Amino acid sequence: MPAPHRIDTQHHILPPRYVTEVGPEAIGRTLVSGQTPDWTPEHSLAAMDRHGIATAVVSVSAPGFPVPDPAALCRYCNDYAAEMVARYPGRFGSFASLPLPDVDASLSEISRALDQLGADGICLLTSYDGRYLGDPLFAPIMDELERREAMVYVHPNEAPGSFLGGLPPASLEFPFDTTRAIANLLFTGTLLRTRSVKYIFSHAGGAVPFLAERLARLERRPDLKQHAPDGVLSELRRLHFDVALSAGELTLGALLRFTTPDRVLFASDFPHAPEPAMAGSVDGLAKAGLAPPDLALIERGNALRLMPRLR
């Protein structure tokens, strides 16, 4: 069997105190299964070994920190991830969370996570209390991430009032919230202002590959064109996208027609998506007809370029 080589850039953790404080119901309701996964670091390692994953960059998924003291719970989760990285050398990296919409606490946590804990980047949710990342409230956060030329992984959230009854948010609302977040970042000028930030967006960018040309029509408006002086498509193609739940023929095909393999990263969404989804990401890429160098970029090379510490 070949040595594990893949780097998984969307791999979630469920620390015990996090599950207790947020609540299994609040976590599980967002997922297709409707249940919070039973998870430990050892569960991740076993699944990774079965599917050729050398390293997983871990993060906390939606719903984030809807608790009375989000800053304390966020610090606990970031400490938990840092301890995993230290306990299993080479097997884990981490995207540290922030207790947004508390801007001051989040600025403090950026410094702590990147300078003290050694996190590989920052995990942002697409929206917080209905505010998207280009909102003026978050400008100090985005400016600090730009100053640091940070690696920023963006995971979808469920926007207030968007829930379509009977369907879990992971099926529809998450991809649409990613689409809204990208459009918001673009047309508020935030992407232009944060050109040094290295962004990864989940799940093939939601509906962006399908809607990119439609978004480009907005260049006809001078007030919007100013935020994409090189063109909307050019600005969108600066971004990176993962293939979690998106390595099937239709979705991956659309993504690779929209962007190039050097902007695509392997991801599994484990354990929020069960192990068969991890296998699906591996299998989908293997069957996509990619040239071997392009497959190597997606499975490992692009992650190493963005996060050299993972070597």
Automatic annotation (TrEMBL):
Residues 7-306 form the Amidohydrolase-related domain. It holds the Pfam family Amidohydro_2. It comes from the Bacteria. Keywords: Hydrolase, Lyase. GO terms for biological process: secondary metabolic process. GO terms for cellular component: cytoplasm. InterPro entries: ACMSD (IPR032465), Amidohydro-rel (IPR006680), Metal_Hydrolase (IPR032466). The keyword Lyase applies. GO terms for molecular function: carboxy-lyase activity; hydrolase activity. This is Amidohydrolase.
